[in-house]
Amino acid sequence: MASGKRHNALRGGSSATLGTMSFSVQLTPDLIPVEPGATTPVSVVVVNKGDEADRYELEIEGVDPEWTAVPVPVFGAEAQETHTERIFFKPSRTSESLAGNYPFVVRVRSLISGEAKTVQAVLEVKTFNHVAMEISPKKGSYSAWRKKNSFAAVVVNLGNSEHTLQLIGNDPEDSCAYEFESEQVTVAPGQQKEVEFIATPTSRPLFAGGRLIGFSITARGIDHPSVVSSAQAQLEQRPFITPTGLILTVIVAVIIGLWYLMKPQPLEIVAFSVNPQMAVRGQPVTVSWNVSQAQHVRVTAGQDVLSDGADPVGQIPYTLPKSGPLDFKIVASKDGQERKQDISLNVKEPPTSPDPEILDLKPIPRRVKLGASFELDYLLGKSVTKAVLEPTNTELDPSLTRLDITPNHSGDLLYTLVATNKDGKSIEKSITVTVYEESDATIIAFSPSDASVPASVGKVTLNWQVTGAVLVQLYTSTGKTKTVDATGTSDEPIAAKTTFTLIATDSKGRKATQKLVVDVVPDQPPTTTAGTGTTATTGDAGQTTGVQTTGGTSTTAGGGR
């Protein structure tokens, strides 16, 4: 990237000397305290010490990207200018934002020279405490036969630091004793732990009225006593039975038994339904029934038998096979008696969906460095219900228009977007993105002795300096190629406008390329000055011979280049 920008500068200006490019970076302060859920701004100061304007790219490395925000990742600075940009830290107020110190690096890179500077600092995420607790079940009971009640205290640490909690049970009348599976529990941030405990009443009368005992379980931090959470539950006292209640229970039970034995049991279809009532072909419906005192039940949908047996209660899903009227029937029978019920359904055709459309699909940019991301801009028609990007098998939201993609290998990568409507009809559209690897070789300088050479001179001197290359080659637009040293000069013959290309290859075969163009201009025509009669002529070797005529006497003088 940097060598490409240097090449553009040489083509536009064609000067052999480049301006000084250097800068410094400061970050204030180097220890940044931040409260989870709050946003903390930090200033990054970039001083352009060079003689030319520069553009910089700012990145934060070492902390969760969701904790940071860089409003202006790319900015410019004039020569000798001090420029300040603000970055923001905003860890969420959740248990995932663990309390502690997080070293990070702010990296600033020149987009022209490729030079990068880093500044180290520490992000201090402060502690916040939040412990919640629930008891399950909320209510228990005890009697002469039931002496113990098992409960579970569920403790949840919603803060961002670990807590060791002491569990204590109490009730206003001290009517119960509490036995915990573990009286202390350690809960990490975001963790939930369940501790079983038994609540045992201190007294259990055989004959007594009912009452409720309300009790609470408290969890208090051992290292931080201010961290407290509690939950309440109830324990119901149930007597075995009262004498009056026993007598009444026996009488009522006898009466109910006699009534049930003497009561005739009729055959009855209690309920029969098909839901939903408004349905289309291919849609599933639920057929439900409830029949009393039936020996046999048969349920049909048109010619399809859904159930044929002795099930008095049932529920069956059924997919509607075709459109038009469809009758659902139930027939219940017992000892020669029958009960019938019908439900008619008008099944409609499902509405047709318009063809899916991919209105736009393009990558920005089409050529990207390996490790960097590009934006995929897409626009789908309203009938699209599902969109998948291959070969990554990424499902896209049809209501959105942009997706960031980071390729994991180089080359010409083909991406295909498959859009589908609700009827299953699909359409495809493909784009190609070129992913390249940046070379370790750097062309520091590549320049000609002159951008324009007279035709009679016939040659130009090229100067270059390369680092990080194992092979350096010089190409001309006329097809000549030669291998040269990493630093050197070369006199190259030139008869017409020529493009020279310098290619530096690193140890992994990756190339850095820079081009320059040298033009050839016609020689100046001979000139004659009236009165003295002086004529200047340029020879093949670039020498100038002057002939001066004065009063019939001729003098010839040789001149250098």
> How many E-type strands?
44
**Large-scale geometry:** elongated
Evaluate the radius of gyration: 45 Å
List the strand order in the largest sheet.
Answer: 2-9-8-4-6
Structural class: mainly beta
> Averaging pLDDT over every residue, what do you get?
83
Q: Can you tell me the residue ranges where pLDDT is under 50 for at least 5 consecutive residues?
A: 1-18, 530-561
What proportion of the residues is helical, as a percent range? under 10%
Oligomer: single chain
- Major sheet details: 5 strands, mixed
Which percent band covers the strand fraction? over 45%
Gap from first CA to last CA: 41 Å
- Number of DSSP helices? 2
Explain what you see.
With 561 residues, the chain is mainly β. Helix content is 6%, strand content 56%. The chain is built from 2 helices and 44 strands. It has a 5-stranded mixed β-sheet with strand order 2-9-8-4-6, with no helix packed on it. It has a 5-stranded mixed β-sheet with strand order 11-18-17-13-15, with no helix packed on it. The protein is elongated. Residues 1-18 and 530-561 have low confidence and may be disordered.
